Amino acid sequence: MSQQHQDGVEFIGMIQGQKVSEIHAAKGPSLDRDYVRAFAQAHETAGFDRVLVPHHSTSPDATLTVAYAASVTQRIHFMLAHRPGFVAPTLAARQFASLDQFSGGRLGVHYISGGSDEEQRRDGDWLDHDQRYARTDEYLEVLHKVWTAEKPFDHEGAHYRFQNAFSEVKPLQTRNGKPHVPVYFGGASEAAIPVAGKYADVYALWGESLDQARELTTRVRAEAARHGRSVRFSVSFRPILAQTEEAAWARAENILAETKRLRVVQGYNRGGPQQSEGAKRLLAAAEKGSRLDKRLWTAVAQEIGGRSNSTALVGTPEQVADALLDYYDLGVTTFLIRGFDPLEDALDYGRELIPRTRELVAQRAQAQRKAA
Question: Which residue has the higher pLDDT, 235 or 309?
Fold first, then answer.
């Protein structure tokens, strides 16, 4: 059972095949088995509940990376990033069910419909942004049928057609008594929100301002309610910690300077946010200033064109935990946190930030129970 079910908050990290970030150029093989093992075990040691294994059109296969990382850990759960459209949903359903069985019920899947035409076309997908979300809708429908069907079934839709589809293997995990792998889902566009309302167990936002997060979670809640469902929420940040606030901001400025330097060396331009509504929302926040709310820092997000979860919370562990509590008060119960020094920061978060946040959440929950 994950920590989220015990104290109301879940922490997710992220592991990759090699050491790389905005301030670290990739070195060595794209898939370093020793690094993956150390990275996964570091998150388990640090007290994370789950780790994301991301997907990119040129990266090592995320499904196999999860399988390996699960084999070298005991407790930590996984969030597999998966793009619908490149594997038939019937096959994906069997793969996810098998992986859930082999990992002992530790799998979750984050479905990413795709915010970049360029990315999608590398793997041969020529649907446009809204069409991709329509396909994801049908994809998830088929997945759930395969997981729960007691006998073969036929399916004929706009994107998929199957006869006698069936899977002998079912997920180890269940929801409402039926086999189920938790569905994490992202996408802030008008095409995405209806799909989230129908299927998401956890809806994931990038690290937006409190006002933006309030607006978006309200929309998703309303859409889920139309289907008689409730949904949990996740927000992603890049915490930058130090023992004093002054030192934390100095570290943030050093990270920004190194990000800029490395991008010049690598010949990158800022570029636009492509078709991703989430990226556009990060840039909209950055336009209001580099420092928002208590500790939200948008400078790196602005520098890289809003690509990926790139906003930070800056301060001491106590200050950042307090800032996370503001999102908890909006109904956010999952925090995806990863650092600019990936493995080292994961261990650092486990020393103070994660336990302090759990403590604050427990105190808040206890106060709410007393007031009820």
Answer: 235
